[in-house]
Amino acid sequence: MKNPFQSARLSYRALESTDTGFIYSLITDTDAFANSAPFLLRPVTRQLSEGMQKSRSEVLLGVVGILSPAKAAESSEAAHDIDGTGTPIGALFISQPSPANQHHHNADLGIDIIACYQRKGYVS
Question: Matching Gene3D superfamilies, A to Z (predicted)?
Answer without folding.
Answer: 3.40.630.30
